[in-house]
Fold:
Amino acid sequence: MVLWNFRWSRKVIYGGASVAAVAISVSAKSGQPDVGQALVNARQLFGLWALAFLLASMILGPLTSVFPWVPLRSSFMYGRRAVGVSALGFCILHVLAYCWSVLRRDWRELFTPGALWVTGLALGLIALIDMLALGVTSRDASVKAMGGRKWKKLHRSVYWLLPVVLLHAVLVGADFGVNHGPDVHGEADYGCLIAFLCVSAGWMLLAILRRRGWRWTATAWGRGQRAPL
Structure:
């Protein structure tokens, strides 16, 4: 019998992501008489949530591999696809909020802030294209159509996607960027940047441990041990 938490894991994740997106839209506008500032708040929050979902989708695999006794392990692994697709959804909302903000003022703001700004936007475009490819092929039918080897090769691009997204956020991010856009007037939140870098470092450590075959069992560290079912 399939447990309810396994069967409903993807629906719960999609539902939670949808509620979060609506809540962000409402909170971004709340108390902001100016539409421009509301769009800045929205794209900031959508971008942070996209990065959080991306990291979550990446960390679930090595986390459950190194710590096979994690509760609801099978549900997390089954729901990982929904986490990745949710990251793409927030990424698209982040891009739409930025495009709306630029087009309502002056499209030349795409390049007038300088070379670092254009570089950051280019990195964001590369990340968006890759996330779209990952999202569109996150279906069982895509695995059959592409073949397992090609599908895995495409989805392993997530390993270079994370540093690209982080660099994009540093160069143009409204929250912890070093090169704010013309419509951003707040100070950078470097604590947020440090937090995401720490989580990214944790993912990298778990990925290395998984690659080397480490498993944390109930007794001690074991190399190459088979995880319990």
Notes: The longest strand covers residues 214-216.
